[in-house]
Amino acid sequence: MHESFYAFIQKLSPEFKVDINLLKSFLKSRKVRKGEILFHKGDICDFVAFNYKGCLRSFVLKDDKEYTLFFHTENQTFGDYESFQKNKPACFSTQAIEDSEILIFNHQAMLLFEKAPGGQKLLRLVAEDLAFLLRDKLLSLLIDTPQERYLKLIENEPELLQRIPQYYLASYLGIEPESLSRLKRRVNQNRKS
C-alpha cells in the first residue's frame, strides 16, 4: 500500500533518502468511509495525510452554507498544516466524499522526514505545491467566471466531474447547484456548435 506514497516522494524529490522500515513504523494507514469527517473547523488537526484511494474535500461553513475549497484525489496530500504544526484550531473541515484509504503522518513521522537527507527539501517542495494550488484557486475565484472555472476543471481534472456530487462541484465553482445545471447545458451546447 505504501508503494504509491514512495513513488510520490521519489518523483517529487529523488535525492530524499530514509529508512523505509523505520518510516513505516510511524505511518498509519486508515480506511475512511464516505461522509466521514476527518476533522472539523476548530479542531486541532494532529496529522497530515496522503490519499491512496478515493476522494476527500476540504470545506468551510459560513452562514449555514458549505464552500468547498479543494478536492483531494489519489496521490495528493491534505490536512490543515498550520493546525498540525502550531497546535492551533483548524481553519476548515475535511470529509471523505468516497470511501477512501489514507496514510497518516503524525509529528514523529514529520520529524523523521525533517532529519532525513533531503527531507527539508522534500517538505519544502510539498509546501510549495500546496501554496501554488492555493494561489491558483484564489486567482481563479477572483479573475475567472464560473464558466471559465468549469472549463478549466474539464480540461485539467475531467475525472472529477464523474466522481463529485453536483452540489459539491457547484460549491467548489462558487455557484448554486441550479446555476451549475444551466452552465453545463450552455457549455455542452457551445461544444456541439
Summary keywords:
193 residues; four-stranded antiparallel sheet; single chain; Jelly Rolls
How does this model look, in words?
There is one protein chain. This protein is α+β, with helices and mostly antiparallel strands. The chain has a domain at 1-117: Jelly Rolls. The chain contains nine helices and eight strands. It has helices spanning 3-12, 20-24, 81-86, 107-115, 119-143, 146-156, 160-163, 166-173, 177-192, and strands at 27-32, 37-39, 48-53, 56-62, 65-72, 76-78, 93-96, 100-105. The strands form two sheets. It has a four-stranded antiparallel sheet with strand order 1-8-3-6. Strands 2-7-4-5 form a four-stranded antiparallel sheet. A hairpin with a 2-residue loop joins strand 4 (56-62) and strand 5. Helix 4 (107-115) packs across helix 5. The longest helix is centred in the last third of the chain and has 25 residues, at 119-143. The radius of gyration is 18 Å and the shape is globular. The relative contact order is 0.16. The mean pLDDT is 89.
User: Which structural category do the helix and sheet elements fall into?
Assistant: alpha+beta
Rg from Cα: 18 Å
Number of helices: 9
The CATH topology of the domain at 1-117 is what? Jelly Rolls
Record the strand order, biggest sheet. 1-8-3-6
How many strands, which pairing sense, and closed or not: the largest β-sheet? 4 strands, antiparallel
List the helices and strands and how they pair.
Blueprint: H1 3-12, H2 20-24, E1 27-32, E2 37-39, E3 48-53, E4 56-62, E5 65-72, E6 76-78, H3 81-86, E7 93-96, E8 100-105, H4 107-115, H5 119-143, H6 146-156, H7 160-163, H8 166-173, H9 177-192
Antiparallel strand pairs: 1-8, 2-7, 3-6, 3-8, 4-5, 4-7
Helix pairs in contact: 4-5
